[in-house]
């Protein structure tokens, strides 16, 4: 089976990092936050996601069984 050298490298680094922090995820993230604070303004802020509008939400559920569509056949 073919093995991707990049994936192998990522796995090796992940294992080394985890071992460095005794496999404690909270400790790893605490260290990342500490590093981020030292970088200051050099990081690009993450954009906030826009909340979905009522119109977009209405269109998402148009195919459900309880929907009332104007395309429904009139009662005979």
Describe the structure.
This protein is an all-alpha fold. The chain is built from 3 helices and no strands. 0% of the residues are buried. The mean pLDDT is 79. It is extended, with a radius of gyration of 25 Å. The longest helix is centred in the first third of the chain and has 16 residues, at 5-20. It has helices at residues 5-20, 25-39, 54-60.
Helical amount: 40-55%
Strand segment count? 0
Q: What is the percentage of strand-forming residues?
A: under 5%
Largest sheet: none
In terms of per-residue confidence, which ranges show pLDDT below 50 for 5 or more consecutive residues?
none
Report how far apart the termini are: 64 Å
Sheet/helix structural class: mainly alpha
How confident overall, as mean pLDDT?
79
Q: What's the total helix number?
A: 3
Shape: extended
Over the alpha carbons, how many angstroms does the gyration radius reach?
Answer: 25 Å
Order of helices and strands: HHH
Topology:
Elements: H1 5-20, H2 25-39, H3 54-60
